[in-house]
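hiii, so i know i said id send this last week but things got crazy w the move. better late than never?? heres the sequnce for the chain we talked about at the cafe, plus the structure i predicted for it. fair warning i was half asleep when i ran it
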Amino acid sequence: MSNTKSDVLFQSGAFGGIDDYFHLKESHDRYDVYVNHDYVGQKTLFNAQEHIRDIEDFLHHEGYHQFQTSTKGNQFYINAEGRDEAIAHILKVYLSMR
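okay and structure toks below
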């Protein structure tokens, strides 16, 4: 079996090798956002200055302070105490505009 030129370059490490191939970072990260375990939308981080915790800042700016957050993999959970419907609504609008 003969190797093509690209096979030889790839195997020699010219393209970083097979290990690097499987650990490539996407151009941007995406998080599924949930309020009290109900899906409300997806937050995409387009650059290094954006963080998933920006959602917390947004909610504080909008006057919401009674909530807790956690991240599990690419899922961002907001546990809202009492105003979950209002928080879910405002986040749906926020996430659809981003």
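btw The radius of gyration is 20 Å. thought thatd interest u
miss u guys!!
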